[in-house]
Amino acid sequence: MNAAIPESPPAAIELIALIKRFAQGHPAVDNINLRIASGTYCCLLGPSGCGKSTTLRMIAGHESVSSGDILLDNRNITDLPAAARGTAMMFQSFALFPHLSALDNVAFSLKMKGVAKDERQAKAQDLLERVAMGALAQRKPGELSGGQQQRVALARALITQPRVLLLDEPLSALDPFLRIQMRAELRRWQKMLGLTFIHVTHSQEEAMALADTMVVMNQGLIEQVGSPHEIYNRPASEFVARFMGGHNVLELPAGKIGVRTDHMQVTPGHEAAPDSPHNQRAVITDIEYQGTYVLLGLQYPGALQTAHSTAALTVMLSEAQFAQRPYALGDAVQLSWAPEAAHRLLPQPAAPAMALAS
User: Is the pLDDT of residue 253 over 70?
Assistant: First the structure.
């Protein structure tokens, strides 16, 4: 008897051969395929201009699709107006009406639908209570802090009872301390509500803290899809390794490899073994104290480069390691790493034809 093949988690959002062209030239979003599992927190991540915000706007219905399809719960929503899709958007600026109270901001969409005042305000008050803003329902946005405004914006998005909540860099306008506090709240709300969240950010730290699944984009393409742990520990391409940080990219005769900065060791140059694929001589060019750890910047003669060119690397040492053996600028050292700490990097985007964010 054949074992049953496990089914993929149901997809809340599915993008099929999605393309967006604004003008002649390279598409802003270039034929991407992606399935985002229902009830997950998914972060679209990448540098400015990679296509992540354009992808989010197409899902929301705020940007037209050049070709391809967008499905929500297996329903094709590609050409539907934004209000008929079953999605809601939280914008970077929160976009609250300054002359309306928090209560009336949340209730506004129901007012536009003709819902009676008592009913819409009761629903709005209930949502404000759920995001710990019930006591401030009569305050206007100018009388609220940035974090309080974000809670109002969330309640306003939820009043339409969306299947998918779309978040366009919702934390970028907040100060660093509040940003950390609010991302914890976003994660808690997503779990409590059981909704699918699709969150656009350029912050690697933010995506790793929030996401069940990260989708790393570059030049309109998907480079890699996976959990934060998978992407950080095994970036599929040189771009992902460099963008995520915390990795060194070395070019060896067999090709490019990635090694985490905290998986490399340094020893004084006079203790060095002969060069091998897992040992490289280098010189310390920078030292940064970061509290619990120290970053060493190094230059090493590239294995496939001329004798006059160098490649920059970084090694992370714990504060205790550095205290035990302090180094100085200009010190000659030997770099080494265990063979299992290295993995090969692909030069091109490595996402499969249909990536599953689950």
Answer: yes
